[in-house]
Write a structure and sequence with these properties.
By secondary structure, this protein is an all-alpha fold. About 55% of the residues lie in helices and about 0% in strands.
Length: about 80
């Protein structure tokens, strides 16, 4: 019983130490809501440029237009036929 408690304590401390290391590492990556919105808007604009016929060659994010031809319907026969 004591050994189990010691092991549980050891793993709890190890976990806390790991969480502190992760928090310390990620602390510098925190952004304000305005900064996150700006990043989202710029990323979306670049994806749209990547899909555009005229803007694709110079876009930062290259995209290929794709379309979903079928979705699973539960029948078990979801083989696409071309």
């Amino acid at each position: 019983m004591i050994a189990a408690q010691l092991l549980a304590y050891y793993f709890t401390e190890l976990k806390d130490d790991q969480l502190k290391k992760i928090d310390k590492y990620l602390y510098s990556m925190r952004f304000s809501d305005d900064t996150l919105k700006d990043i989202m808007n710029r990323f979306r604009r670049e994806m749209e440029n990547g899909l555009g016929r005229d803007t694709s060659p110079t876009a930062t994010v290259k995209m290929l237009p794709t379309f979903v031809r079928a979705i699973p319907d539960g029948s078990g026969n979801n083989v696409l036929t071309w």
